[in-house]
Write a structure and sequence with these properties.
binds nicotinamide-adenine-dinucleotide, alpha/beta
Length: 327
Amino acid sequence: MIYDKRKVVIVGAGMVGMSYAYALLNQGVCNELVLIDLNKKRAEGEAQDLNHGAAFSPSGIKVTAGDYGDCSDADIVVICAGVAQKPGESRLNLLQRNTEVFRQVVTSTVNSGFNGIFIVATNPVDIMTRVAYDLSGFPAHRVIGTGTTLDTARLRYLLGNYFDVDPRNVHAYVMGEHGDSEFVPWSQAMVATKHVYDIFRDNSDSFNIYDIEKIADEVSNAAYSIIEAKGATYYGIGMAIVRITKAIFNDESSVLTISTKLNGEYGIKDTFLGVPTFINRGGVKRILRLDLTPEEKQKLMNSAHTLDESYNMLSVDLDRSKKMALK
Ligand code: NAD
């Protein structure tokens, strides 16, 4: 019998990392899970706690607290490590500090001999994914950001509620930056195979087309309202990362709005941002090109400009072409 090893390492055993770990365990997605954190004691406690649930997990799994040496034979390394914004700290300063965290995390992971796929959740996720790509020297298909996967799930949930249908039958995306410049390309939104515009047209006594803007606003303000209520968001993103992990392990070619490097699609080059993308065992298989309206294309372009501006202010301080030459 061939042993199908599925090994995941989580760097950053905080709220997001552990929500992901808990969902992994409950869904039986991998059989080896290693937790790495600056706070080693915390990682050890989390591993112990999770292992006590192993008897109730749908499949066997071994959870340990470890170090970067454990990445050498991992299939996926998920980065949820990050520092919190200090009072009065600028976004750029936070970005620079998280870049320093990534310099340590990504370099140590790569130096272990890791040859798998990075999934990045740390915010601002599109820029941090690009930084991980720069620092690792890995090809872009093996560096995936969570992008607008969570925002898309929020949209599907809200539209499902609004139309009173199962969110799994709602096919609509949030695209662009995981942040303020994200948008919903309504020209692509369907319930089952019926376009939402047609549903509004055929059911004008029940639904009002002007409500779509309220729904889009609720999606983009969701994180703010959760943070105001409970300090942080973690369950939804934990499950979103599990969804990406399953698409990789099961070689699904599923379409998810992860953050990936654009290579001229929609007129954008080199920026990492959330676009519907096929994910399989090798990571990014290809980007799905949608027929966006000119207005939607412009919104995506604006999102890319916003991200490029922040990225260009960062000093990542490396020469990617040199790193590639070393590989
Ligand atoms: P948290 O503070 O609970 O956890 C962060 C963990 O990272 C801590 O345990 C800390 O010790 C660890 N850490 C810091 N520096 C490290 C290093 N150099 N090496 C190893 N571990 C290190 O934070 P959280 O709530 O889990 O959030 C984590 C990140 O996820 C944040 O950047 C947050 O903004 C982001 N997030 C992203 C999304 C998304 O949709 N992508 C959603 C929610 C949160």
